[in-house]
Amino acid sequence: MKLNLSLLVGTLIISFATGTALGAEADKAKKQAEIRKATQASLDRFYKARPELKSQVDKSPGYAVFTSFGISFIVGGASGHGLASNRKTGGNTYMNMAQASAGVQVSAAQTETLIVFKSPQALAQFVDKGWEFGGGGAVEAGAGGKTVGAPGAGGENVIADALYYTLTKNGIQAGGALAGTKFWTDKDLN
Hints:
Blueprint: H1 2-49, H2 52-59, E1 62-86, E2 92-117, H3 120-129, E3 131-135, E4 140-143, E5 146-148, E6 156-159, E7 162-185
Antiparallel strand pairs: 1-2, 2-7, 3-7, 4-5, 4-7, 6-7
């Protein structure tokens, strides 16, 4: 009887560990699929808002797309997930982002970010080491994928051998602030 009990306990432990591993893999695959779907939806909104972006992305060595949500009243923050895509290899890297800000700013918004890399080295550095940079502020309001901002601003910035675009999906942002944004590889999803 003692041997059978040990065998039963061992079998239960192995079954639990296997089930947990399979559940974690299914959860990982589900999160990856959600990010890929959100990435494509964001790209579609960027292309609709600025059709010339499609040819920029198509000609680039790679791009990254992030969706984030944040709240700010004088100080604030945002976080999100995204995908960096190497157009030459077809490889994707799942990534995270976080932003902190301080200044005369009020916002509660879901923002989409598109980064179009100008060189394979810039893409590789972004994926391998992540990025950290600061920025300014803008006045924008968006709903249903439409963004309204300062005329001619277009949400475009040039940074570290890349073009950086933002689109306010839903919410409002107003004011000016010092902001820092960090991007890094999601070790759990890669």
